[in-house]
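Human: I'm a chemist; would you kindly supply sequence and C-alpha cells for a protein?

Assistant:
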Amino acid sequence: MHRPPSFSREPGTPGTLTAVPHADQSPSTQQDAPAKRPGTPRPDRVRPTPLAELATRLGTESPGAGEVTGITHDSRAVRPGDLYAALPGARFHGADFAAQAAGLGAAAVLTDPSGAERAAVTGLPVLVTEDPRGRMGELAAEIYGHPGRDLLQIGITGTSGKTTTAYLVEAGLKSADGPTTREEGRDGGTPGRGPGELSQKGGGGRRVGLIGTVEMRIGDERVKSERTTPEATDLQALFAVMRERGVASVAMEVSSHALVLGRVDGCVFDIAVFNNLSPEHMEFHSDMEDYYRAKAQLFTPRRSRFGVINLDDEYGRRLAEEATVPVVTFSAAGLPDADWRAEDVLIGPMDSTFTVVGPKEQRISAKAPLAGPFNVANTLAAIVTLAEAGFDPQRAADGIAAVPGVPGRLERVDVGQPYLAVVDYAHKTDAVESVLRALRKVTEGRLHIVLGCGGDRDETKRGPMGAAAARLADTAVLTSDNPRSEDPLAILTTMLAGAAGVPAEERGDVLVEPDRAAAIAAAVARARPGDTVLVAGKGHEQGQDIAGVVRPFDDRQVLRAAIEAHPMERANRHENSQG
C-alpha cells in the first residue's frame, strides 16, 4: 500500500524552534540557566544610587540617607538593597506588602500618598509621589544606569504578527553585518530619514536579546515570559543584564497595555515597527480609536526615534501621516507609494519567496520562512527594519530566510501522518480568517479547525470568530480556550450563535466539544490524506486556565498524542513495521 508523503521537511523531526520548557521540566533543559530566583533576571553589578538623587528626580523631599541597587514592584521578588515600588491596585495596595519587602532586605519604598503611612510603619525610608507607576520606569532606568542607551532597541507593535516579526528581526540581527554610519553610506535604508548614527549601538552577528509573548532570550539563555511586555522595573533590569552579558541589540514586542500602563517608560526605541490594527483587547480599550491612540504613542519622540509602518493597513496609513517621528513605509501588496515594497511574490505551501524593492530601487531576494501572505508582510517588516538600522539588507534577508519557525505560529506537528497538522496562536477574527485562507491554498483535501475564545476577555469577537471558522473551514470544532472565571458553555453559546449566522450553504460542519483535548481528537478523527488540521488560539501556551486553576496543556503535545492514538496512524505504523 502506497502511503502519501509527509508534510514535514524531515519525517519525525520538529518543524520549528522549541519554546521554553514546561514548569515540570528540569531547568537543566535551558542552556546555561542560572539558579532560579524570584522575578526577572538581574544584573550582577549595579552602582548604588543615593536616595537623594531619586528624590531630586521625583521633585520630592529626600527621605534621608541611604542608597539602592535595584527596584521591583513585586514584594516577593525583593532583593537586598531594592527600592520596593508599592503601587495602588484594584483589590490591594502594594503598601500592604511593605513588611514582606522589608523582611527580604528592601532599602526603601516608593509609593503614593495613600500608601505612605503603611509603608512608613516598616521603618524604611519612603519616597512619596502622586503617580508611582508613572515614575517607576524612569527610576528603574536611573538605578540600572540607563542600559537601553547601550543597546540597539527595536520595538514592534500591532494586533497581529508582533511575535513572528520579533523572531525574524532577531534572526536578521544575528546574521547581518554591523550597522554602518549614514555618513559612510550603505546599500540599505533611506539616507537622512532613519534613526541616525547607530554604528556605536549594536551589531549583527553578536549576542542578541528578544523580549516577547513566548519567551525572553538573553543571547542563548531562555526565560519564560509572564506577559508580552514586562513591567518597567523588570524591563530595565533585563536591559541591564543584556548589556552586562554582551548583548548588543534587542527586538521586543510592545503591547498596547505596555504603552498605556507605562511598562516601557524610561525606554526610547531606536526603531518602532507598526504591523497592523484590528479589533482586540476591547475589554481594556473603550473602542478602536482608543486602541489606535495607545499604539500611536510608540511613534512619538517620547517613545522612539524612527518608525517603520505598514502602508497596507488602514491604520498604518493614518499613522504614517500622524507620527511625530521620521518614518518609512512598506507594502507587501506592492503599493507604489510605499518606500519599500514586495514584488514577484510566490506563495508556497510552507514558505513564500519575493523581491524587496527599496527606495533607491535596490532589489533584495527574500523568503518568508512561514506560510501565508501575512508572513510576507512580517518578513518585509523585519527586512526593512534592519535595513533602516543600517544593516546590510541582503544578509539580513538571508538570515531571516533560514529561520526554522516560530513557536506556536503555524507550527507543524508531524509524526509521519498523511495530512498537515499545525498549531497557531490565531485568537482574533482577522487572524483566524488569515490563517484559514492561507492553509486553504495549500490543502488538497478538507480543512478542519479547532477553536475557542478566552474567558474574561473581549466578548465582542466570539461570535465573529465562530462565524469565520464555520464559513472558511470544512469542519469547525468549537471548544474551550482559557475559560478563566467564565462558564465555558456560555462562551461556546456565543461562538455557536456566530457560526449559526452563516448561511447553511456556506457553512462547514460545526461541532461543539467543551473539552479541548477531546475536540482536538475529534478533528484528527476526521482527517484524511491531503487534509489539514489546524488547532488555533493558544499556540505556544503550555497551560489552560479553568476557574482560576492553570492545568498543564500544550496544543502541540495534545495534537501529537491524538494523531499517534488514531487508528489510521496506528495502522500506518504497523504497516511500516511489517516492511
Summary: The first strand starts at residue 49 and ends at 50.
